[in-house]
Amino acid sequence: MTEEYDVAIVGGGHNALVAAAYLAKTGLRTILLERLPHTGGAAISARPFPGVDALLSRYSYLVSLLPRQIIADLGLDLQLSSRATASYTPTRRDGRAAGLLVEHREGSATADSFRSLTGGDSEYAAWRDFYAEVFEVAVALAPTLMRPLPRAADMRREVGARTWEWLTGAPLGVELDRRFADDTVRGVVATDALIGTFASMYDEQLVQNRCFLYHLIGNGTGEWRVPVGGMGAVTNSLSHAALAAGATIETGAGVTRIEADGSSAQTSYEQGGFERVVASKWVLSGVASAVLDELLGRASSVPRPQGSQLKINLVLKRLPRWKSGIEPAVAFAGTLHVAEEYSQLEAAYAAAAAGDLPDPLPGELYCHTLTDPTILAPDLVAQGYQTLTYFGVHTPPAVFAGGPDVVDMAVGRALDALDQHLEEPIRDCVAVDSDGDLCLEAKTPLDIEAALNMPGGHIFHGDLAWPWLDAGFEAVTAADRWGVATGISNVFVCGSGAQRGGAVSGLGGHNAAMAVLESRSD
To answer: Residue 496 burial by CB count (10 A; 0-12/13-18/19+): exposed, middle or buried?
Structure first.
């Protein structure tokens, strides 16, 4: 059976849904093919614990890079809420429990926390100067993300030569060494360079610099917000928008082959035991580049990516108390950094690069339900239940080669790192499901690859790229101009592997759609 469309989209993640909605709105006949029984990719919600009515964001969990313009253009029924706390980092100083609190809107509590931890005001002054500089980068760069790629020289003029030099010309660790003296403060800054990225802060390839940039430019503010209703609410709103625009969405449709000659394409897929073919002018790929290469029958154009994260989802009966005395609802509301002193991060990277599981294991946590309790049943809210999300860094696939025992060890080390700062073990606070098991699930890069077909479990589909044209590169085609080229003139990248991809942003989908619309007149 052969079906005819203008555009076939391979994969049904949030970016693919964005592309489908934009293209269908223009009248292009658009079909989206997703092998799983549901759309959303990593941007989904699930109820993983029997008998516990908690709808958790299973993989991705916060939103920053999704532009307000996409929400408005597609009429998304979506609410993103701010967290009262930006971050809290527990530590020990001179034998006492301490911590660094950063408010969402920095005020006296933040200044007092810096002063108490570091013994003066200079470190907070350095912090404010640094993030004021980063804010200017965000203001300059954010508006370009939904336009054709700017030139590097133009962006250099926009952000200033000094900022450009440390941001794009040398490992970020060098600049952090220069700007900050305190190990804890430096570690808090460094974490934005390492989420989903396996690298030393001194890596000469600067992958950590690029990760840092994307974590701090969303909507010109860099704020990470909570999707009300969970990450599935993002996917659901996008799916509704695509269908309302007239797109066709097929789930349980596993693509097996793509044939494209630059002017037409055929996409083969299996569904319900039958093989079908979509004939189209364009194909958009929401899958990782390594998967696309397999479907095209060509040699891989990039090294196999390697993820580096350990995701742990928990439901708690209550929030534990802190040795430092901070209110649990304050500490857990924002991003909670554990074992993420700068020296600990570098030591963890060195251990993992040698194939060993880091100890202590660095990671960060946050409690969705302190900002949005709607993902819990009302009776659980009344009983004081909360959700807890942990995202560990420097845990590449190689460290889990030993199988389930290593995963259990990693979970234990993650919880142990938190316990050092608590008055009561976190395990005592974890709820139990109807089977008598702890409400705790762990997802390694190997699990993510198996569930979502992301090679190496890499949440960005590969290393992030600078969001501008390299000096000397001539953007000849629409795909070049929008950063979605694949080497085949009618096959575009629309997922996280796009030049401005990564995280829950919709940018890859929007920009691929714009490339299709522009290429009609090329």
So the answer is: buried
The tokens describing 272, both together, are: 């319900």
Token pair for 498: 């796009």
- At residue 386, the 3 state secondary structure works out as strand
Dihedral sign, Cα of residue 322, residue 323, residue 327, residue 330: negative
Burial of residue 377 (CB within 10 Å: 0-12, 13-18, 19+) is middle
Q: Which residues contact 130 (CB under 8 A, 6 or more apart)?
A: 179, 180, 189
Q: Which residues pair with 81 in a beta bridge?
A: 226
Residues 6+ apart with CB under 8 A from 147: none
Cα distances (Å, whole numbers) of residue 365 to 32, 89, 192: 34, 10, 14
CA distance 309 to 323: 28
CB 85 within 8 A of CB 328: no
Q: Tell me the β-bridge partners of 268.
A: 257, 277
**Which whole-number Å values give the CA distances from 285 to 37, 381, 485, in the listed order?**
18, 41, 10
Amino acid in the structure at residue 332: F
What is d(CA 408, CA 388) in angstroms, rounded to the nearest whole number? 18
81 SS3 class: strand
DSSP E strand boundaries for 377-501: 386-392, 440-443, 491-493
Cα(394)–Cα(358) distance, rounded to whole angstroms?
A: 8
Please give the chain's pLDDT, 522 residues, in tens. Answer: 799 999 999 999 999 999 999 999 999 999 999 999 999 999 999 999 999 999 999 999 999 999 999 999 999 999 999 999 999 999 999 999 999 999 999 999 999 999 999 999 999 999 999 999 999 999 999 999 999 999 999 999 999 999 999 999 999 999 999 999 999 999 999 999 999 999 999 999 999 999 999 999 999 999 999 999 999 999 999 999 999 999 999 999 999 999 999 999 999 999 999 999 999 999 999 999 999 999 999 998 778 899 999 999 999 999 999 999 999 999 999 999 999 999 999 999 999 999 999 999 999 999 999 999 999 999 999 999 999 999 999 999 999 999 999 999 999 999 999 999 999 999 999 999 999 999 999 999 999 999 999 999 999 999 999 999 998 899 999 999 999 999 999 999 999 999 999 999 999 999 999 999 999 876
What count of other Cβ atoms lies within 10 Å of the Cβ of residue 35? 19
pTM passes above 0.85: yes
Q: What does the alpha-carbon distance between residue 351 and residue 357 come to, in Å, rounded to a whole number?
A: 7
> 520 near 490, Cβ under 8 Å?
no
Q: Which pairing describes strands 7-10 and 2-4: parallel, antiparallel, or unpaired?
A: unpaired
State the DSSP H helix or E strand holding residue 255, giving kind and residue range, or none if neither: strand 254-260
Q: What is the rounded (10 degree) CA torsion for 335, 212, 502, 293? A: -140
